[in-house]
Amino acid sequence: MTSYQLSSGDLTADRRAHYARLYAEGDDLAAAIDLQRQALDLAPDWAAGWQALGHFAEKSGDQIGAADAWRKVLGLSPTDIFGAGLKLSLTGQAVTPPTPPSEYIEVLFDGYSDRFDTALVENLGYCVPERLTALLADVAGADARFAKVIDLGCGTGLFGERIRRMTSWLEGYDLSQGMLAKAGEKGVYDHLGQADILHGIPAARLTGAEPADLVAAADVFAYFGDLGGVMAMASSLVADGGLLALSLEAGPEDCEWMLQSSLRYCHGETYLRRQLDQHGLDLLTLSQEPIRRDGPNTISGLLAVARKRPSATVSKTLVERVSAAALPLALI
Predict the structure, then answer these.
(1) What letters, b where the CB count within 10 A reaches 16 and e where it falls short, cover 162-195?
(2) Which domains does the chain have, with CATH numbers?
(3) Beta bridge mates, 39
């Protein structure tokens, strides 16, 4: 039995875990915990079962019990596809990682891909693709066209659908095969590739591919704490004079980055400005605004468009049509 199995492999254990979930949904957490422990007595090496126990314990307010369960998960599943290490760090019993495990992100979005568009857009009012596209139109002009666009963490293609009319060539990259399959069904990308954004984008691109006039990261950087590595990668994909458009979840101004209970990271505005500058990007526009709902709360985001400082002369490929003349004078 592999450590990532959602089934324990024991019918009786699975049945007790099922009833535990039902009790938890009815807010009888004591009964849920008791039944989940009974299931784990029958299947002690079931990582997903220990993860469920940690969740029930956390909901009941038993942080010590939750942390014990998450440590058990990490022992059984060292690649941490369940994000137990992230949960453990929120209890103060582990150092907060600067980035989540790639395996966790891949499994998370593979499982989410079939219902992603409905859940995010219709149920949570997610609006980052529309708002980033609008900011780009404000910066570059409503009739601007980009010779090449790279959509980092493209997901199911929500941003790709909106930017397609503004580009001659659109590439999308994501860690999740499930997300890429959904993006492919929309027929808006010229090239799709599976890649770890931090390490695998160059290998996933077509041989001899040139940098892009626009690189976009819509709701992607929220899955990175320390932005140094991913910002360097994004900047390397932008042609001299080209644009980077991105969104973050807004954090307290005095913080650089912070892991939230959602297991996403938030960032401070000053930190974002510093990261852009350090990676050769001049901020053109920055907007702090609501980007989606999260239960009863509204998530505030930072949406930014920045231009890469030319190393010599501005690449002529950019003039399809993002010129300095199209930018507000105050930003030049």
Answers:
(1) bbbebbebbbbbbbbebbbebbeeeebbeebbeb
(2) 11-95 (1.25.40.10), 112-331 (3.40.50.150)
(3) none
User: Which two three-digit tokens encode residue 72?
Assistant: 């058990």
Residue-by-residue pLDDT tens, the chain, 332 positions: 333 457 888 899 999 999 999 999 999 999 999 999 999 999 999 999 999 999 999 999 998 999 999 999 999 988 889 999 999 998 887 889 898 888 888 888 888 777 776 767 667 888 999 999 999 999 988 888 999 999 999 999 999 999 999 999 999 999 999 999 999 999 999 999 999 988 888 888 887 788 999 999 999 999 999 999 999 999 999 999 999 999 999 999 889 999 999 899 999 999 999 999 999 999 999 999 999 888 788 999 999 999 999 874 334 444 344 434 333 323 32
Q: Which are the contacts of 145, defined by CB distance < 8 A and separation ≥ 6? A: 166, 167, 168, 320, 321
**294 DSSP β-pair partners:** 297
Q: How many residues does the chain have?
A: 332
Contact of 269 with 246, CB cutoff 8 Å: no
